Amino acid sequence: MAETQENNTFIKEMEVKKTESTPEIDEIENISKYPVSPAAESTVNTIAGILLIIGCLGALVGLIGGLGQISDGDSTAGWGFLGGGLAFFLIGLIEWAFLKVFVNISRNLYNINAVLHEIKNK
Description:
- The chain is mainly α.
- The protein has helices at about 1-15, 25-30, 40-70, 75-120.
- The two termini are about 25 Å apart.
């Protein structure tokens, strides 16, 4: 409830200041002239998914290969395969998480820009 009141207060203050030309408003107008490319977000999101799939497949290969080596009596190679598969999965998961964070930051900045334009154009 208090957050809504703070947002409403902020919007009212921005509406009062919209007639004034301040350096901040001029800066927002200059920044907004740059084009927004949703294809870049989509590409990064797709790459993140591909990296996660590759990591899962690498982990599966390591698991199967490791268990196969252990059942053949070569425990050193088997544990190496298992460790490599686990490392491959963790690296793929971390890469996926970082790329998803970047996509979410980009989307949030786009939404903030849209809200600022709505406030400016009221």
